C-alpha cells in the first residue's frame, strides 16, 4: 500500500516537472488544496497549492486574490509542518505574515504569529517563541478574542515551564483560566493539567494531585480522548510518586481501556508513561509489558509511515520547481519539446521509474532487516519476561512451603500443649478424688465440691479441643481430610486420628489428647490400617504424608493459608 501511494504521488509530481500549467488564482483550487489536506493527501495538496502560489500575479493583485493567496500560503505551511519540514513551513508562514500585514487581516496575523511560535517552541528556541507570543497577544487583546487570549497565556505558561520559571508559568496559566469560559469544562481541565505538570516538575506531588483531581472533576461525563487522557495518565504518575499504590491500581484498568481506543501515536506515548508508573511502583514486570507494547506500536507506525519517502520526492519537486523559474531553460524546453521523440520521453520515464523502484526496493529490504532485528529483540524480551515470571512463581512456592511448615509446627505445638494440659487436669482430678476418699473427717459438702471439681477438670476441654483442632487443621491443610474420606470409608474418629498421625504425634500424646488408654489408641491404629488396606508393619505417618503429596501432585499445591 505504501509503494502504491508513493507511485501515485510520483504520477502527480512528474507532470509538474515536465509541464508548468498557466492558471490564474482560483478560489476553487485553494479550496481543493484545503480539502485534500483535510483528507490526509498531503502530496496532492502541496502540488495544487504550490501551483496556485507560483501563478499568483506579482504586481497589481486584487485584495480578494491576496486573501486567497494568504489562505494558500497558510495551508501550505501547515502541510510542510505536517510532514516535518519545519524550515519550509517557516518560510511559507513568513510570506503569509507579510500578506496579512498588507491586507490588514489582524485576526489571521495573530493566528500566524501563534503558529510560528509553535515551530520555535518545538525547536527549543524560547526567546523567539516568547517574542512571537507577545505580538500575538497584543493583537488578540485589542480584538477582545478571549479564546485566543486564553491560548496565548497558556502558551506563555508552557514557555516559562520549559525555562524552569515555575512561578511565572503558574501566573500565566492562572490568567488563561480567567479567560476561559466556565462552560468550557474541557478547556479548563487542560489548563489545570498543565498546572499540575508544573507542580510535578518541582516535586510538589500533593499539589499536583489536587490540580489533577479538579481537572478530572471537570472532565467527568466527557469521553476520554487524546486531549483528556493525559490528565488520567498524569494522575496515575503523581499517585505512584506519592506511594498510593492501591489508588493507582484501581485507576489503571479504565486508563488501559481508554488507551486502546486512541490513535496509535497517542497509544505509544501513553504506554511509555505507564511504564514509568510501573517502575515507580516497583512493578518491573508491568513496566516491561508496557515497554514491549510501546515498541510494538512504534514499529507498526514506522512500517506504515512513508513520510520520509514523500519528503524526498517533495525535495526533488521543489528543486525542479525552482529550476522552472529560469526563463532561458523554460524557453529552451518549449522550443525543443515538440522535437523530442516519444521514445526518448519513454526512456527517461522508464529510467526514472526504475531508479525510484530501486530506491524503494533498497528501503524495503532495509526495513525488513530492521523489522527482523526488532522481532528478535521482542522475542528475547518476552523470554526474559517468562523467566522472571517463573522465578516469581518459584519464590512464592518456597514462601508457601515455609509458611505451611511453620503452621504445622504451630498446630503440633498447640495440640501437644493441649494434651499436656488435659493430662495435668486428669492428674489433678485423680488427686482430688484420692484426697476425698482418704479423708474421712471432711464434711459431706466439701466432699461433694471435691467430686464436682474433679468432674469439671476431666471434661473441661473435651469438645472445644476437638472442634478447634479440626478448624485449625483444615486451615493449614485445606481439603486433606475431605479427600481422605472420599477415598476410604473412614469415620469422624478415624479422620481425627489420621490428622494426629499426619502431624507426627506419638501414641502416648494421642492418648493424652483423646482421654484414652495407650492400648486403646494402638487398637484404633490397627483398625485404621485395615480400613486403609495397609499391612500391620506399615507406618501410618509415612502413608498419610505420601497420600498428601500424591493429591497435591494431581490437583496442584494448595495455596490457601489463613
Describe the global form.
elongated
Pattern of helices and strands: HHHHHHHHHHHHHHHHHHHHHHHHH
> Which residue ranges are poorly predicted, with pLDDT under 50 across at least 5 consecutive positions?
1-25, 556-562
**Arithmetic mean of pLDDT:** 77
Q: Proportion of β residues?
A: under 5%
Distance between the termini: 60 Å
Biggest sheet, open or closed, and with what strands and sense? none
Please give the radius of gyration in angstroms: 42 Å
Count of individual beta strands: 0
Secondary-structure-derived class = mainly alpha
User: Count of helical segments?
Assistant: 25
Q: In percent, how helical is the residue content?
A: over 70%
Summarize the structure.
81% of the residues lie in helices and 0% in strands. The N terminus and C terminus are likely disordered.
Key features of this structure:
disordered N terminus, disordered C terminus, 562 residues, mainly alpha, 81% helix
Structural commentary:
The chain has 562 residues and is mainly alpha-helical. 81% of the residues lie in helices and 0% in strands. The chain is built from 25 helices and no strands. The radius of gyration is 42 Å and the shape is elongated.
Please write out the topology.
Layout: H1 2-18, H2 27-38, H3 42-54, H4 63-82, H5 86-103, H6 106-122, H7 126-143, H8 146-162, H9 166-178, H10 185-201, H11 205-219, H12 229-241, H13 245-259, H14 264-281, H15 284-304, H16 307-323, H17 327-336, H18 342-438, H19 444-458, H20 462-476, H21 480-487, H22 492-502, H23 507-514, H24 518-532, H25 540-555
Amino acid at each position: 500500500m505504501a509503494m502504491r501511494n508513493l507511485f501515485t504521488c510520483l504520477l502527480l509530481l512528474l507532470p509538474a516537472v515536465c509541464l508548468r500549467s498557466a492558471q490564474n488564482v482560483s478560489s476553487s483550487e485553494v479550496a481543493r488544496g484545503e480539502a485534500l489536506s483535510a483528507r490526509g493527501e498531503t502530496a496532492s495538496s502541496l502540488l495544487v497549492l504550490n501551483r496556485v502560489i507560483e501563478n499568483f500575479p506579482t504586481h497589481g493583485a486584487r485584495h480578494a486574490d491576496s486573501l486567497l493567496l494568504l489562505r494558500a500560503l497558510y495551508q501550505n505551511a501547515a502541510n510542510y509542518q505536517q510532514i516535518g519540514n519545519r524550515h519550509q513551513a517557516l518560510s511559507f508562514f513568513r510570506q503569509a505574515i507579510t500578506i496579512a500585514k498588507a491586507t490588514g487581516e489582524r485576526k489571521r496575523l495573530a493566528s500566524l504569529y501563534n503558529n510560528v511560535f509553535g515551530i520555535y517552541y518545538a525547536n527549543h528556541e524560547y526567546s523567539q517563541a516568547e517574542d512571537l507570543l507577545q505580538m500575538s497577544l497584543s493583537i488578540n487583546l485589542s480584538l477582545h478574542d478571549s479564546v485566543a487570549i486564553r491560548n496565548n497565556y497558556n502558551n506563555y505558561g508552557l514557555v516559562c515551564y520549559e525555562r524552569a520559571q515555575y512561578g511565572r508559568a503558574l501566573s500565566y496559566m492562572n490568567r488563561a483560566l480567567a479567560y476561559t469560559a466556565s462552560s468550557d469544562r474541557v478547556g479548563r481541565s487542560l489548563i489545570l493539567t498543565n498546572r499540575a505538570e508544573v507542580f510535578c516538575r518541582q516535586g510538589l506531588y500533593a499539589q499536583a494531585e489536587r490540580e489533577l483531581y479538579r481537572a478530572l472533576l471537570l472532565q467527568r461525563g466527557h469521553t476520554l480522548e487524546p486531549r483528556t487522557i493525559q490528565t488520567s495518565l498524569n494522575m496515575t504518575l503523581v499517585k505512584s510518586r506519592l506511594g498510593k499504590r492501591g489508588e493507582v491500581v484501581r485507576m489503571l484498568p479504565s486508563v488501559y481501556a481508554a488507551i486502546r481506543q486512541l490513535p496509535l501515536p497517542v497509544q505509544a506515548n501513553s504506554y511509555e508513561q505507564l511504564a514509568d508508573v510501573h517502575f515507580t511502583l516497583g512493578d518491573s514486570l508491568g513496566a516491561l509489558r508496557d515497554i514491549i507494547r510501546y515498541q510494538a506500536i512504534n514499529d507498526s507506525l514506522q512500517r506504515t509511515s512513508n513520510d520520509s519517502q514523500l519528503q524526498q520526492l517533495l525535495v526533488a519537486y521543489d528543486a525542479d520547481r525552482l529550476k522552472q523559474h529560469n526563463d532561458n531553460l523554460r524557453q529552451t524546453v518549449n522550443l525543443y519539446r515538440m522535437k523530442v521523440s516519444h521514445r526518448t520521453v519513454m526512456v527517461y520515464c522508464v529510467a526514472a521509474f526504475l531508479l525510484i523502484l530501486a530506491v524503494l526496493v533498497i528501503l524495503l529490504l532495509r526495513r525488513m532487516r530492521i523489522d527482523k532485528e526488532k522481532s528478535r529483540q521482542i522475542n528475547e524480551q518476552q523470554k526474559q519476561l517468562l523467566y522472571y515470571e517463573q522465578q516469581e512463581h518459584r519464590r512464592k512456592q518456597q514462601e508457601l512451603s515455609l509458611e505451611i511448615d511453620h503452621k504445622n509446627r504451630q498446630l503440633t505445638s498447640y495440640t501437644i500443649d493441649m494434651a499436656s494440659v488435659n493430662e495435668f487436669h486428669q492428674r489433678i482430678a485423680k488427686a482430688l478424688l484420692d484426697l476425698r476418699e482418704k479423708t474421712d473427717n471432711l464434711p459431706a459438702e466439701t466432699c461433694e465440691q471435691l467430686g464436682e471439681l474433679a468432674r469439671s477438670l476431666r471434661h473441661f476441654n473435651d469438645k472445644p479441643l476437638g472442634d478447634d483442632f479440626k478448624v485449625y487443621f483444615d486451615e493449614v491443610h485445606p481439603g486433606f481430610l475431605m479427600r481422605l474420606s472420599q477415598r476410604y470409608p473412614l469415620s469422624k474418629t478415624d479422620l481425627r486420628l489420621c490428622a494426629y498421625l499426619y502431624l507426627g504425634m506419638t501414641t502416648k500424646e494421642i492418648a493424652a489428647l483423646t482421654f484414652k488408654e495407650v492400648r486403646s489408641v494402638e487398637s484404633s491404629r490397627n483398625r485404621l490400617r485395615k480400613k486403609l488396606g495397609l499391612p500391620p508393619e506399615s507406618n501410618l505417618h509415612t502413608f498419610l504424608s505420601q497420600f498428601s503429596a500424591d493429591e497435591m501432585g494431581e490437583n496442584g499445591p494448595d495455596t490457601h493459608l489463613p
